[in-house]
């Protein structure tokens, strides 16, 4: 059995988006989260985690139901100081779902031939963007 591909997830602008100006869980975000944790080896890559999963869960709690919170609890912690790429190994295959990269992160992805591993999603600009990505990733 092959190991699952790693998926790195951001929170703001990815799992949380704007709907009519209100911050909410992205459109069908609960379905995406369930799909992600059952299909991929998921890791937080967000300033709301930085080594502590509980921080991310506390931040998301007001936006999700109990079942979705349990699913989110299956996502593992990462840690980084400046660039999120500090938490990623260039030798692994991964999917990184992130709304906005820093210049240093883009450079690291390019230098390591990993730019195609970045899946840009911005649910602040397009509330349904995560659902669209879910459809794309679920296709065989």
Compact description:
This protein is of the alpha/beta class and 140 residues long. The protein has helices at 29-39, 53-60, 66-72, 103-111, 129-138; strands at residues 6-9, 16-19, 22-25, 41-44, 94-98, 118-120.
How would you describe this protein?
- With 140 residues, the protein is α/β, with parallel strands linked by helices.
- Helices cover 32% and strands 17% of the residues.
- The protein contains 5 helices and 6 strands, in the order βββαβααβαβα.
- The chain has helices spanning 29-39, 53-60, 66-72, 103-111, 129-138, and strands spanning 6-9, 16-19, 22-25, 41-44, 94-98, 118-120.
- A 4-stranded parallel beta sheet has the order 4-1-5-6, with helices on one face. A two-stranded antiparallel sheet has the order 2-3.
- Strand 2 (16-19) and strand 3 form a beta hairpin.
- The chain is globular.
- The model has no long low-confidence stretch (mean pLDDT 96).
């Amino acid at each position: 059995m092959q190991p699952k591909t790693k998926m790195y997830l951001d929170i703001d602008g990815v799992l949380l988006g704007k709907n009519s100006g209100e911050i909410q869980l992205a459109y069908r975000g609960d379905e995406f989260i369930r799909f992600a944790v059952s299909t991929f080896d998921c890791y937080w890559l967000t300033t709301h985690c930085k080594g502590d999963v509980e921080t991310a869960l506390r931040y998301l709690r007001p936006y999700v139901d109990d079942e979705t919170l349990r699913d989110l609890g299956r996502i593992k912690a990462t840690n980084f100081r400046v660039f999120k790429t500090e938490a990623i190994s260039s030798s692994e295959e991964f999917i990184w779902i992130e709304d906005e990269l820093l210049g240093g992160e883009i450079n690291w992805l390019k230098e390591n031939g990993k730019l195609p591993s970045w899946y840009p999603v911005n649910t602040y600009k397009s509330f349904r963007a995560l659902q669209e990505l879910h459809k794309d990733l679920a296709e065989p």
